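quick one before i forget lol
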Amino acid sequence: MRTKSEYYNRLLWALGQRMEQEDHSSIGLVVCGGAALGAVGALERETLDVDVVALARNNRLVAANLPDSLKRYVREIAEEFGVSASWLNTGPRSLFEKGLPPGLQDRLRQERYGEKLSIFWIAREDLICLKLYAASDDLGRQRRDIDIQDFKALTPKFEEIDVAIKWLKTLPDYHEKSDCLKRLLLDEGHEDNAAYL
């Protein structure tokens, strides 16, 4: 199984090189979603994007407000490689505002793409939390099916799902998701975890 998608790996190296050419200030991106699943060896599909949930700055996490210059580099690289302009995006940034799983920052794994760009990959246990959150959302069926497959690919154990549920219960939109979450756990054979909802 691939541990890293060739797709996003090439794009991130290109972004790092562009930052060096332009003498851009260094930046650290905290990445979740499909690209992070690839980094932990759990990717079962070709990921289409790099989802940035936060920035790593001065040993702390901050909101994912990308500089305009970096957004421009992302667009230019998209044109160069013939991919979507949203290949690197801050779609999950609202999760940072709601509150990330406790201890997530301590479990991040840093990887450098040149001198200016650092990617901080979210650990497997935190991906279980975030994917369970995404899969318990009544979004479009195709998007939810992808999140469910990603959640299953992480092969979560009872204790790991229990930790994820405890985190989900702290979020402001938990009650909106609780019914969908319970159905999901029952459908996927996690009856013991569903009993705690």
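fyi Residues 4 and 38 are 5 Å apart (CA to CA).
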